[in-house]
Design goal:
Two copies of one chain form a homodimer. By secondary structure, chain A is mainly α. The first copy, chain A, has ten helices and three strands. Chains A and B meet through helix 3, helix 4 and helix 7 of A and helix 3, helix 4 and helix 7 of B. Chain B binds a DNA duplex through helix 3.
Chain lengths: 250, 250
Amino acid sequence: MNEQLQPLKKPSRAGKAGRSGTQDDIVYAHIFEAILEQRLAPGTKLSEEALGEIFGVSRTIIRRALSRLAHEGVVLLRPNRGAVVASPSVEEARQVFFARRMVEKAITELAVNHSTADDLAELRKMVQDERDSFSRGDRGAGIRLSGEFHLKLAEAAKNAPLISFQRSLVSQTSLIIAQYESGNRSHCSYDEHMQLIDAIEARDAALAVNLMMHHMDHIDSKLNLDEESASDDLHAVFSHLLQTKGKNQR
Amino acid sequence: MNEQLQPLKKPSRAGKAGRSGTQDDIVYAHIFEAILEQRLAPGTKLSEEALGEIFGVSRTIIRRALSRLAHEGVVLLRPNRGAVVASPSVEEARQVFFARRMVEKAITELAVNHSTADDLAELRKMVQDERDSFSRGDRGAGIRLSGEFHLKLAEAAKNAPLISFQRSLVSQTSLIIAQYESGNRSHCSYDEHMQLIDAIEARDAALAVNLMMHHMDHIDSKLNLDEESASDDLHAVFSHLLQTKGKNQR
DNA sequence: GCACTCGTGCTTGTGTACAATGCGGCCTGT
DNA sequence: ACAGGCCGCATTGTACACAAGCACGAGTGC
């Protein structure tokens, strides 16, 4: 069991629930980051006690964080058997992508109508960060930041339920990308993000949606979901056997 | 404060997470049911200790249940100030309905392609139950069952992320209906549900989607979201003042 | 008479101890 | 030697006790 947890680096920016720093959120954000940046491999056991020691908090806090992560689908909670990093099957990946396509379309249309100048400025800044990460060679941060771009876009759309759903979809997508990405191409090209912002700023709904749909095409064309990527990752291959327990996910 | 909690009637069917009966799920399902059937009014405080005594479990269990309910949006968790039954504002209601329209459309299309004979049979049975509830005059159960119909439809669509999102949307919709419904008309007419099943069984996607869209129209035409329903419900009127604290919403 | 402040009580937040459950190794019998 | 069952260990599930924070009310000064 290769626990490659690292001993509590700085809180970074805490990505998502970045507001106020209740212990709870800090732990959540750290584990979340670690998973998305692939410092924690799919299938890795997440022991409550071990995590508690690492973060210097009791199991109570860890448990809440894991619960949240499970809700978003990046962690699998197996009754009486602990939590593991989720390893989405190909079928699950397809379902996530289908849902994302639908949501991104709606979000794009809403963003065209509702995004403010501030929203757009922030979005541009995020694309900058993303580009920086890639040029720095930090693939993990790149994956995470490109996800956060899509999340920020959802916020610009000003629809609370969609934001929260998007949060979950983006998390899972990042996990899928980390697991299935073929080659080392930039997976979520910032150029496309930039063009998208331009189209939204121009309030050109048709163009924006079009760009977004192509963007989605590009993302999943870069994954090899068609053949189960062979013996590359034994865990992923048998994950559906190992972890299909009693979750709500069919 | 009028705690109209009633002392632990039978588990009923536990509606949603009906599988296995861990204490956790039981408590969750009971509170969920009580809220959707309007035995718990929006704004009602949900004290952990009180609930614990009622259900005969410790606060730990209650807390998890409340956390799940908060995730679905039917309960509002205010840090250090306890949980209350959510009372969605008109704006929140609009956002939920927008999202639902989008999701129901996708679900309908998927269900046309993926629903099995078993799915359809179960759906028909649920519509029966729904009709029975209304003829019995049990409005609360009717609201809940019509919601469960839409949830079952999502399951027939065979897309896990959509199912879980739909669960949250249906819950919130039920709450909104309970809060804003004008008059006493049957709000989610079973006739429309039946026609929808027929169209799906006939694999007529265009018709099915059409019916679903009209169904959505009917639902929100029955609500008076346009004027804040006057002094009818003092709680609802001032809820945005009382509860807008630090939630992730917008 | 009004407003501000301080004290008190209740509710929630967190840590920890104990119980229950599943897992793996060991032993025994065939 | 291998299969099956038994027992001990580790990890999670639950409850409880203590700490902290907020709300309400009484009292006092202006």
